[in-house]
Amino acid sequence: MIWLLGSVALLVTAAATLCVLVDFLRRPRSNSLSLRNQLAIYGIQRCVGVFGAYQGRKMERDSRRFMEVQHALISTILRTGERTRYGRDHGLARMRSLSEFRARHPVTEYGHYAAYVQAVEAGEETAMFGDDEVYLFATSSGTTGSSKHLPMGRQQLRRIMRNIAPLMATTQAQYSGGAIAPVLVVTSRVKPSLSTSGKRICSLSPVLQESPLASLQSVTPPCVTEVETEWAACYLGLLFALAEPELHALFTSFIFVFLRLMDVLEEQWPRLLSELAAGRIEDHLSLPEPLLRRINEHLTPAPDRARELEPMFTQGFDRIIPRLWPRLRFLQAARSGLASDMYLTLARRYIGDLPVLDMAYCSSEAWLGISADPSAAEVPFTLTADSCLYEFLPVSHEGEHAQATSNPIPDGSDAGEGPNDSRLRRRGDASSVTRTHNVQEHNKETDDPRRTTTDRGESHDTADGGEDLRHRLLLANELRVGEDYELVVTTRSGLYRYRQGDVVRICRFHNRAPVVQLLYRTGTNLNIHGVNISGLALYSALRAAAERWPGRTLLEFGTAESALDGSRAGLPPHHLMFVELCGPRLTEAEAALLDTCLQSLSEGYALKRKEGAIGAIQLLQMEPGVFLKLRDNMAARGQAHWSQLKRLHILRRAEDVEFLMKHVLPPIE
């Protein structure tokens, strides 16, 4: 009997081994990877695939009982939080349920936590953490205001990696066919500062990109991540990637980082091919000599590959990516938010119809959701029930008519399963439909970060008694499809009813879980003489005007109030629109179209223009590449890593406006 059982076990083991071997051999594999690396990559892929399937089933279960999970989560957060100094100061022990928490706790912003964050940085972790230890302080990008330090616990980071990594790996495998092949990850290592207690203060984005799988598949050696600038990271990434004809995937943090990669490729391809053929880079990246030497040790001369690539560049850059790397299966890059359609259109010139995956919805505060369709033109994200408590502040709809940015809601079981599903009317071309988007937002540049502004323009202190906002927040089961909301979150890391800063649109519900589209960040309004115009309305007006500029392509833009330009003193207050275009310079008549389009989209703006209270928006065409220089300036002066910096569309600093004014092209009369 024992002999029989042993034989059966041996046969089962042999069969399982054979199945694994067959699966390994059937997968696309690159000869540029060693057999050892291939086996390691395969093993990790199988493990995360199994765990990803488990996480997917869990998310599906949670989506069916979304509010039940939310109630359980807030109970856990309150019980943990009551042991902290913040919890004692704000009476969390007296809040025993979600309803009590929502009735008693105010809506907050970052200034509400400043003293507690400082205490945690000094080593008093129990000021905000009850059952976790601080792993790092995540810095926000600072695009819409000053950079913030948000403490992140070790367990919280593990939870994010445990949940998000398997799901992302599973989706990537679906698009790549499970290939065991090299990839290019454009990033660089974080060089953090330290808090008083010795904890890292750094950007979260590069930390989340670190993984054993990426290090095994990456075409760049580890020493390349030691470079500090985006330009150097792009150049070196391209140099190593061009040597690899079997590149299978390309990863950048944002779609505009990919566009920066393409800028480097267009400008530097002769030098790249020269150094590829020589197997050595010269000292033109301002790298430390020891680092340059280590990088050169990983390069080998590839003159044949350089000769093979040269005709592809001389043919032009349309669809250059699939020509350089025929086996490339996808580009992964976040691309949601304001002007995402513009960036995707620009990227399509280089990638053709290659899928562009936007996998997850994550911020410095919390992991928020996973993409329901990562390759869609406008990416929807399914909110995850156990990540944080979600509340939603309705945005007002008065005075502006900004073009819709979402696609029609598709037919099917997912389109109308929400508790309050008021189905949007069927829309054809989204660009031909108008919506209102006047968000009377708080000003993130005020001296007191706790001050905020209501829809009536009245100011109150949300940290101490934001009753107006407190009773306007909605839960996930109270939302309406097609409506827009500002996201408010309560997290495991000590943030309670925190205005996270994103404005989202409810696309549909997946079971009971909201599926959202990220529209834009708060703090993107410009207010002149009481006319509050959102960044979305300004961008919509710009897009409408650009459609009437034949032979030009909109590459980048930024807006500001004229008060930031000292040379305009004495003129009626007005808006400034800085644009970078590909094509001939605009005539004065063409530039004036922007004012006409903005008046058609904003009733308040049109009224003030007729009254003469404000002047016409002035469009200023910029020298090529000036916005990239501005972004480099931002990276140099801030703590955020370059891979985390968003494109700066709303200018709040006089020094940024002054910089751009030095690079304005004169209009053609």
Automatic annotation (TrEMBL):
InterPro entries membership: GH3, GH3_C, GH3_M
Gene Ontology MF annotations: acid-amino acid ligase activity
The GH3 C-terminal domain, residue ranges: 539-652
Pfam families assigned: GH3, GH3_C, GH3_M
Compositionally skewed regions (Basic and acidic residues) per UniProt: 420-429, 438-469
Gene Ontology CC entries for this record: cytoplasm
Domain GH3 middle: 469-521
Region described as Disordered: spans on this chain: 399-469
Annotated protein name in UniProt: Indole-3-acetic acid-amido synthetase GH3.5
Gene that specifies this protein: GH3.5_1
